[in-house]
């Protein structure tokens, strides 16, 4: 009887929550989040003082909950007043005008609708990170992790192979991009005066990103050429060896600092640059996996012999996808080096590989949105559990094990990502914004 009552109460709460959020478009949620970020920016410090908190909670109060449990009630009150109430109340109050705007944009300028939503996402991130340098670093590292996870999913998910070479690609991109910016635009003890005027550096930084990606793609040829002549697990073995070779090569190359690492990268990887690169990466990879090459990759993954019988050049398809994924891993490496302004060969080892694989499999294979969710979730959970120190690495693997038991393909697997469907109105008047099927 109690179990039945518990189930009934749970169903009632679920229906109440559904009624609370019914008909609210993404635009209204983003406006509510913007309102919450503005309120925290204006009144966060005063509210923290009023609640006797040492400072504004950095990452949703987990640092207080894990270090000082007596502050949990005050932290919950802060989160409710700053995030919960403005987000939900603002979204509900703006539901009607947001639906009208979303419908008008979906009917007349769907691309503009996507840009408006992206601008709101950036505005929320900008205001939220403006209160803390730690928040800024976490957000930038998380966006870079999204790029890495997406690029690895192209190979391990859409192509159906198992690659361990992403830390190597990231290292090649990080060092190549760093050499371009340090040698070209900065004065350093290792390389001397800059070759080009430093004032040109921020404008030519995209060139360093492209060069880093191109070097990683060239390095991918060393893995792809021998691996794709065979079938089976050879790619995993060769790619793992490639990562070790790249790491060992950099450690023994004194021209780039050897095991001491390379420092002095200019501070050009600010939030707008990292955000723009992540959006571009998500858009390009999403178009790639939904194009004829993406369909060919799925055919190769499902049955390579049948794909060859359908006149698909399987080796060429694999090569293109592998080099494409390596390019974006290299770009992520350039951004990573310039966010930290220091790069060390020890960073690109087995721990980096394990983290990227965990983010990909946690989010879900063959899914752009799954990769985004996996990268954001694992990074934020890892940072929020940092006060636990060594016990953090007990909880996170346990979480991954539970996901693999109950959701073997990940949280959001085999699902297409359609930005136009995501930004459509939610009040039933979708027009051309009405979504097509999201699953395959």
Give an overview in words.
The chain is an all-alpha fold and 440 residues long. Strands 1-2 form a two-stranded antiparallel ribbon. The protein is built from 18 helices and two strands. It starts with a helix and ends in an 18-residue tail after the last helix.
Task: Kindly summarize this structure in a few lines.
The protein is mainly α. It contains 18 helices and two strands.
What is the element layout, followed by pairings?
Blueprint: H1 2-21, H2 26-50, H3 62-67, H4 72-93, H5 95-108, H6 110-129, H7 133-158, H8 166-185, H9 201-227, H10 234-251, E1 262-263, H11 271-290, H12 292-302, H13 304-309, H14 314-340, E2 342-343, H15 350-363, H16 368-384, H17 392-406, H18 419-422
Antiparallel strand pairs: 1-2
Helix pairs in contact: 2-4, 2-6, 5-6, 6-7, 7-11, 7-14, 7-15, 7-16, 8-9, 8-10, 8-14, 9-10, 9-14, 12-14, 15-16
Q: Overall 3D geometry?
A: globular
Strand order of the largest sheet: 1-2
Helix vs. strand class: mainly alpha
Radius of gyration: 23 Å
How many separate domains make up the residues? 2
How many strand segments? 2
Q: Helix tally? A: 18
The topology string of helices and strands comes to HHHHHHHHHHEHHHHEHHHH
Write down the overall mean pLDDT.
87
Largest β-sheet summary: 2 strands, antiparallel
How far is the first residue's CA from the last residue's CA?
41 Å
**Low-confidence parts:** 430-440
- What fraction of residues sit in β-strands? under 5%
Helix proportion range: over 70%
């Amino acid at each position: 009887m109690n179990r039945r009552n518990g189930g009934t109460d749970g169903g009632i709460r679920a229906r109440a929550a559904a009624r609370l959020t019914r008909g609210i478009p993404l635009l209204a949620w983003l406006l509510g989040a913007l309102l919450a970020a503005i309120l925290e920016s204006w009144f966060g410090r005063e509210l923290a003082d009023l609640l006797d908190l040492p400072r504004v909670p950095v990452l949703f109060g987990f640092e207080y909950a894990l270090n000082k449990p007596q502050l949990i009630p005050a932290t919950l009150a802060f989160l409710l007043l700053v995030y919960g109430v403005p987000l939900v109340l603002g979204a509900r109050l703006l539901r009607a005008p947001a639906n009208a705007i979303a419908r008008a944009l979906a009917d007349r300028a769907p691309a503009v609708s996507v840009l408006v939503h992206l601008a709101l996402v950036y505005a929320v991130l900008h205001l939220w990170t403006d209160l803390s340098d730690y928040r800024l670093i976490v957000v930038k590292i998380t966006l870079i992790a999204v790029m890495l996870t997406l690029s690895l999913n192209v190979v391990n998910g859409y192509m159906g192979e198992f690659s361990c070479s992403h830390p190597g690609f990231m290292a090649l991109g990080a060092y190549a991009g760093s050499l371009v910016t340090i040698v070209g635009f900065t004065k350093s003890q290792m390389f001397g005066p800059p070759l080009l005027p430093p004032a040109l550096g921020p404008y030519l930084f995209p060139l360093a990103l492209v060069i880093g990606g191109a070097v990683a793609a060239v390095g991918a040829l060393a893995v792809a050429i021998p691996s794709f002549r065979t079938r089976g697990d050879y790619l995993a073995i060769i790619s793992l060896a490639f990562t070790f070779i790249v790491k060992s090569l950099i450690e023994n190359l004194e021209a780039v600092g050897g095991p001491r690492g390379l420092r002095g990268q200019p501070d050009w990887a600010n939030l707008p640059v990292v955000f723009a690169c992540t959006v571009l990466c998500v858009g390009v990879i999403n178009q790639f996996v939904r194009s004829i090459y993406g369909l060919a990759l799925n055919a190769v993954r499902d049955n390579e012999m049948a794909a060859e019988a359908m006149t698909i050049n399987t080796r060429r398809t694999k090569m293109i996808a592998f080099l494409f994924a390596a390019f974006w891993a290299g770009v992520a490496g350039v951004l990573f080096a310039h966010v930290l302004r220091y790069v060390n060969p020890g960073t690109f080892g087995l721990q980096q590989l394990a983290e990227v694989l965990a983010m990909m499999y946690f989010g879900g294979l063959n899914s752009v949105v799954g990769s985004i969710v996996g990268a954001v979730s694992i990074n934020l959970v890892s940072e929020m559990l940092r006060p636990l120190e060594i016990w953090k690495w007990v909880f996170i693997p346990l979480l991954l094990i539970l996901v693999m038991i109950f959701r073997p393909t990940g949280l959001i697997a085999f699902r297409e990502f359609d930005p136009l469907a995501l930004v459509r109105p939610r009040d039933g008047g979708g027009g051309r914004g009405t979504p097509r099927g999201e699953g395959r």
